[in-house]
Design a protein that fits this description.
The protein is mostly helical. It has a domain at 9-98 and 123-212 and 245-290: Hypothetical protein af1432. It contains 17 helices and no strands. Helix 5 packs parallel to helix 14 and helix 6 runs antiparallel to helix 7. Bound molecules: magnesium ion. Magnesium ion (MG) binds at residues 65, 69, 94-95, 188.
């Protein structure tokens, strides 16, 4: 049962290149399937989330993180009467524009671009991927996704101003995105904050005592686990506590968003779009808990000495390769050399680097710059 404020697939603004309907899949289901079958989606498997895969096969990579975001998004969308197919598609595509080496790679690529007066933004890059780089159809470039999916790619995590981004003017920049898109930024937060506690503990960078001391919601959940399972080993108490914290985040986001929609008197999709602020939100109390977890992870995991070497290597590899191709564009693949005739070389080098997996960029660095990383 779709709520009145949900996106209705039969009212989609459609695709750039009109296509006949499919006999049994609706337009958002087709978009979901196009994302799943895209090369850039498959490459997520070999892109770092937080830990490089060589540490352990159990840690998340960008693909498994993406699947977790899709799981949470589907659950909440269904409970709120939103369009589950659209929410799932937006979750599956939300990290498709991420470069290799996780956050460090993203920062390094942006820094390299800024030296040439440009910048890197993974949402804008994701749009370039689905609009241009994916080559699957004889009739057009890109995946030819519906308007609502392209809009969600751009707007799920931030607002872009029309003055700064005239090229995005078709995406209704003066309006908020539908709730299906608003959700993704927050389900992403739930997924990585809990998963990074999990992987950080598994990697023995974080201890249970340390998490209990710094993340109050986890501490309360751990106390419940201890009371219920006093004999259990620490790892299983940890799992019970994390599961409880995870569940509280999901439930809170769902309930508080529902409440905000009701309080705002929002009835239709147009109401969602024209509301002055985003309606998908955690309650203030839960948002404070989420922030505590996030701040803890920044201080103790993302900037930990254990991950510093990975970060430094990412900066070296991305930075050096970027400058190498800027001064040796003849070493770029031919298709990129051709593109450099239409757009600044730095943008083309950026596109090439951003699409790479951790494995491929390391190999390229070895090939062109010796393995100095
Ligand atoms: Mg993400």
């Amino acid at each position: 049962m779709l709520a009145d404020y949900a996106v209705r697939v039969e009212r989609t603004r459609g695709r750039r290149h009109p296509e006949p309907p499919h006999p049994y899949r609706n337009e958002f289901q087709r978009d979901r399937d196009r994302v799943i079958h895209a090369r850039s989606f498959r490459r997520l498997e070999n892109k770092t989330q937080v830990f490089t895969a060589r540490v352990s096969d159990h840690f998340r990579n960008r693909l498994t993180h993406t699947i977790e975001v899709a799981q949470i998004s589907r659950t909440i969308a269904e409970q709120l009467g939103l369009n589950v197919d659209l929410a799932e598609t937006l979750a599956l595509v939300h990290d498709i524009g991420h470069p290799p080496f996780g956050h460090a790679g993203e920062k390094a690529l942006d820094a390299a671009m800024r030296k040439h007066g440009l910048f890197f933004d993974h949402n804008l890059h994701a749009l370039r991927i689905v609009e241009d780089f994916e080559l699957r159809y004889a009739a057009f470039r890109g995946l030819n996704l519906t308007f609502e999916v392209r809009e969600g790619i751009i707007k799920h995590s931030r607002d872009y101003s029309a003055e700064q981004h005239p090229e995005l003017s078709e995406y209704l920049l003066d309006q908020k995105p539908p709730l299906e898109a608003q959700l993704i930024d927050l389900t992403d937060e739930i997924a990585y904050n809990t998963a990074d506690l999990d992987d950080g503990y598994e990697a023995e960078v974080l201890t249970v005592a340390q998490i209990r001391e710094n993340v109050p919601a986890f501490e309360r959940a751990y106390q419940v686990a201890e009371t219920r399972y006093p004999q259990a080993i620490e790892k299983l108490k940890f799992n019970e506590a994390l599961k409880r914290f995870f569940n509280q985040l999901v439930t809170d986001l769902m309930n508080h968003t529902r409440e905000r929609v009701a309080k705002a008197g929002v009835k239709t999709l147009d109401d969602v779009r024209s509301h002055p602020e985003r309606l998908a939100a955690f309650s203030p109390a839960m948002d404070a808990e989420r922030r505590r977890a996030k701040e803890f992870l920044y201080a103790n995991l993302y900037y930990s000495p254990e991950l510093r070497a990975d970060k430094e290597r990412a900066e070296v590899v991305v930075g050096e390769l970027f400058e190498f191709w800027m001064s040796h564009p003849e070493e770029l693949p031919r298709s990129y050399q051709a593109k450099a005739k239409e757009e600044p070389l730095a943008r083309i080098v950026c596109d090439y680097v951003a699409g790479m997996t951790d494995g491929f960029i390391a190999e390229q660095h070895g090939k062109f710059l010796g393995d100095r990383g």
